[in-house]
């Protein structure tokens, strides 16, 4: 038995040195092979939204910050001196602690930082040193950036984003020799965890598309139509770009006015129909609404020519007409989620300009109509990036879903990338089954023409908000949209920031019921009432010019916003009528959830 690895609290012993040595050799061998394969993948090449391209952008951005500091040597020396002094303080504290003295930590992570939850980050001087050194360094870097002069707002936002990305990557929790849980597992299993981790990496590379898709959940635990997207219904209409699902009634009577739901085309619709307990669509059906949902196609090169205009005309407006023909009701209520809501907003402006109105009332869920405060996603839509993206999509006819998924993961690397690298590749464990993360990994492609238009016209040029957008020969003006609107933003949204959603809601010409929900882009929306997990806030929107003013007068409510929405929507839902079975007029094509949502990349 070998000598224990030194710590003050936990002995680390190699129980089987021969097996340990063999496994370490296997790790080096398999790791070298995996690294070689990674370097041959698109991940390692400067292509749109790849890890290599973002690392390149990070290097250029942070080099510019360094250049600005080097222009003022005295200020640079002062900043460097502050960092060195903090390291000296930490070293002295570590020496005193090693001598048996009780020493208060110089710096501690916030309680919400799950990277350092393992007790040994505090009880073991070795790991505690690495933890505090990392925290001191990242705090110093953030202070340096805050004190950097000569940066405009966009450049500062870009630098803050890439600094977060870099600091997340350099956490000692991400390295096998400085993570106590990984060290323990390595000694306990004679490094079998690292061998298993290399096997997990190889498997992830095999099943990945353009970019490495790190497993975030046990994908074998779920199947669409079996334990996800199980609300009973029928596909009653379809064309090239969507299937229309009508759900079976569950109440003795239903509201006269049906509800059409438009999800984002960059994800699959069943985020709104996960398990029965989390299903927004099932909840709406159970409240007595006749619910229809658009299930967008997973497009390939054959649909490369489908434009944003097509998604409006052949998508939302065709779906609304199908709902009208199926139910015999002239106008339906409509809900748009995320980019589905952005498409819906443009559609409403198009209809208003033409003097047409196929809808009675509108719900927007985390929807941006103005993109001036669109958050970190703006960093991925400059002219150079869009030109490269358009070239790639021009060659293929679509954008691989892994690229947009990579963007969303890069926006929250501490939560969506590194925990899974540690769990899968260092600890050698399979990820836990989690329905939301299964949906997150079940990505869909984007038709080239449609997605090019969306990124350039909305994110890059913000034409809808400026009143400069035209669709099908019609100039769009959101002020002409007079319909009653229920608008939901979420407090911690990194995709459609609440400030951005609020600004966009003020562009509409009709009454807006603005609601701020707790949590983020997904959990703030998928928040069923029985969980009582997050609260929401309400206030008269017209009384506030900014979101900060609105928050200052808002009243908080415990639990889900869903019942509040039902109360609002009921005012526009008509009388009670006999329940409608799916496909009574249009016929039935197949059972829900349909075939479009099951299509894989």
Measured distance between first and last alpha carbons: 51 Å
CATH architecture of the largest domain: 3-Layer(aba) Sandwich
The helix/strand class is alpha/beta
CATH superfamily of the largest domain: Alpha/Beta hydrolase fold, catalytic domain
What is the number of strand segments?
Answer: 17
The main sheet orders its strands as 15-14-13-12-7-6-4-5-2-1-17
Q: Can you tell me the CATH class of the largest domain?
A: Alpha Beta
Unreliable sequence segments: 1-8
- Fraction of residues in helix: 40-55%
Q: In this structure, how is the largest beta sheet organized?
A: 11 strands, mixed
Description:
- By secondary structure, this protein is of the alpha/beta class.
- It is built from 21 helices and 17 strands.
- The protein has an 11-stranded mixed sheet with strand order 15-14-13-12-7-6-4-5-2-1-17, with helices on both faces.
- Strand 6 (332-337), helix 11 and strand 7 form a beta-alpha-beta unit.
- Keywords: Acyltransferase, Cytoplasm, Transferase.
- Its main location: cytoplasm.
- This is Poly(3-hydroxyalkanoate) polymerase.
